[in-house]
Write a structure and sequence with these properties.
260 residues, two-stranded antiparallel sheet, 80% helix
């Protein structure tokens, strides 16, 4: 399993890094591709027509390009009449599960992924690249720290009713490793004070783990092991980006607090 995870990461990493470095439309295209796959997974899991799910997720991303954070909010709000259209025209969409899928695509997928674009768009070129890389790689670092710390030292369950395998020791390991990696990078590349850089590392790891727990709750409620099988060793795309969906907005608003 671990070998398959590393193999998938080795394939995806150059694509993700390339889009981030090129920036602008390449990031938007990558975000829309991820949104498209996430839409397929949620539509299948919650029995919703695919175009309905994709539209709800894509609106915040597309409107963020010309209008920034106001566009993200507008995209989420437009999800309501979008949902009404599908409820009126497609009887099979008139279920609580389908409504949940529409709301999740707008608020859990579309709006957070739109922040990935904003991080790069509303900063100078190099700072934007560094910040997006931190937002994307931070969850991977936190996940690795939590995994190995939990494997070696895990004794006390973190939230046994939500995710039995997660431990307090693993969570601490994720925070420590993320801070150890993010703090010097943010200090060096973004010229942030060391205490601010360390705070960023702690916040990124905490929200990253919260994102993972949120998806664990969702899958438990739906009775699913994974939301998809697109990525060997990881499950679906949502199983891979669950932490990013919490981390990207956190990095963006940390940037607005400390770098603007």
């Amino acid at each position: 399993m671990l070998r398959r995870r590393f193999g998938t990461a080795a394939v995806l990493a150059p694509i993700v890094v390339g889009a981030i470095v090129l920036g602008g439309p390449y990031v938007v295209a990558l975000v829309l591709l991820v949104t498209a796959r996430a839409s397929y997974e949620l539509a299948r899991a919650l029995t919703l027509p695919y175009p309905a799910a994709f539209g709800a997720g894509a609106l915040p991303v597309l409107l963020a390009v010309p209008f920034g954070t106001t566009g993200i909010l507008a995209g989420v709000m437009l999800g309501l009449p979008w949902a009404l259209f599908w409820l009126a025209g497609y009887p099979e969409a008139r279920t609580l599960r389908a409504m949940l899928a529409l709301m999740l695509m707008a608020t859990w997928v579309g709006a957070p992924l739109a922040h990935v674009y904003l991080i790069g768009d509303q900063t100078n070129d190099l700072d934007g690249v560094y910040l997006v890389l931190i937002a994307v790689a931070g969850p991977w670092v936190s996940d690795s720290g939590a995994y190995f710390a939990g494997l070696l030292f895990g004794r006390h369950p973190l939230f046994p009713s939500l995710s039995p395998k997660k431990t307090i020791e693993g969570a601490i390991g994720g925070i420590v490793l993320t801070t150890a990696v993010v703090a010097p990078l943010a200090n060096l590349l973004l010229d942030l004070p060391l205490w601010t850089s360390a705070l960023a590392g702690v916040v990124i790891s905490i929200v990253s783990q919260a994102g993972d727990l949120f998806e664990s709750i969702l899958k438990r409620l739906l009775g699913l092991k994974d939301l998809g099988r697109a990525l060997p060793g990881h499950g679906g795309i949502l199983d891979r980006i669950d932490s990013l969906l919490f981390t990207a907005p956190a990095v963006y608003y940390l940037y607005t607090l400390f770098l603007t």
